[in-house]
Specification:
301 residues
């Protein structure tokens, strides 16, 4: 007796015409091999860092402004921002368009009450990282991915965003003493409080690109006279606060622009749409595409 799956009787057969609309196994395997089978998911690890906030301005005797907060950092490899756990890779569809936006850094502020501008958000598909908050001297620092730091005029640092970054450092009572402004918050730690130092909160390292790189460090509070320090581009770092001894306006430093990095299997090919500046390298069995500016769509095939 022929095997019939445990069923007694004649062995059943199915003709191709009886299975209209259903893929034969050999056909599905052929299309999968050619990557025309749209049911194949593309698993994508990501790093999404927003633009850093600008440093606070100063325009008064012994004024020391706070640094800008770092842009929010969300990542699936090695480290992510805030106190959250690593995020999960996205499972995406071939041939579907997904949005990528690289946020710009916020401008530094000038003047006595100047508050640094908030950095712009960075986006990949459903993932959004919030721009860093602006630092301040006498004004109120702003919240963001990481919060802006306060100056040596009192007040508290602004809040960061859970899972993206930490708060800015607090100010201190104004004593006509040229001390320092508080640091902006970073991806790994809060900014240093005014009077205790000026360092921005620590950034966090990730090896998504194949080597370890630190992103999203808070901007330093002012420790000397002059304009605040500018943050490097594509870091998401906050800008430095400005300092003044005798009066006159000085300007906080601008925050660094953000970055988006995507890692996926090297059997796939990415298409980068108009409006984006990006490049692709190979790291073992992965491809790594890095976006440094712009906004547009990407897809895989």
């Amino acid at each position: 007796m022929r095997s019939n799956g445990g069923i007694i009787g004649a062995k059943k057969t199915v003709s191709p015409s009886a299975a209209s609309g259903i893929w034969a196994i050999r056909d599905a395997q052929r299309e999968r091999g050619a990557f025309n089978w749209t049911g194949i998911p593309v698993t994508v690890d990501y790093l999404v860092v927003a633009g850093g906030g600008g440093g606070g301005g100063a325009g008064y005797r012994q004024a020391c402004a706070g640094g800008g907060g770092a842009g929010g950092m969300r990542c699936t490899v090695t480290g992510t921002g805030g106190s959250g756990s690593l995020e999960s890779a996205l499972s995406l569809n071939m041939g579907t368009l997904y949005t990528v936006t690289v946020g710009s850094g916020g401008a530094g502020a000038g003047g006595l009450n100047g508050v640094g501008a908030v950095g712009q958000n960075s986006v990949f598909s459903t993932i959004t990282s919030s721009g860093g908050g602006g630092g301040a001297f006498q004004g109120t620092p702003t919240a963001g991915g990481s919060g802006g730091g306060q100056g040596n005029s009192g007040g508290v640092g602004a809040a960061g965003t859970t899972g993206q970054g930490f708060k800015g450092g607090d100010g201190r009572g104004y004593t006509y003493s040229f001390t320092n402004g508080a640091g902006g918050g970073g991806a790994a730690a809060a900014g240093t409080n005014a009077g205790s130092g000026s360092a921005g909160g620590a950034g966090r390292a990730t090896s998504i690109s194949g080597s370890s790189v630190t992103y999203a460090t808070g901007g330093p509070g002012a420790t000397g006279v002059g304009n605040g320090s500018s943050a490097a581009g594509n870091t998401g770092n906050g800008g430095g606060g400005a300092g003044q001894t005798t009066g006159g306006n000085v300007t906080g430093g601008p925050g660094g622009s953000g970055i988006v990095v995507l890692r996926y299997s090297n059997v796939f090919t990415i298409t980068i749409g108009a409006g984006l500046t990006g490049s692709t390298t190979t790291d073992g069995s992965y491809k790594v595409t890095t976006f440094t500016a712009g906004s547009g769509n990407v897809s895989w095939g």
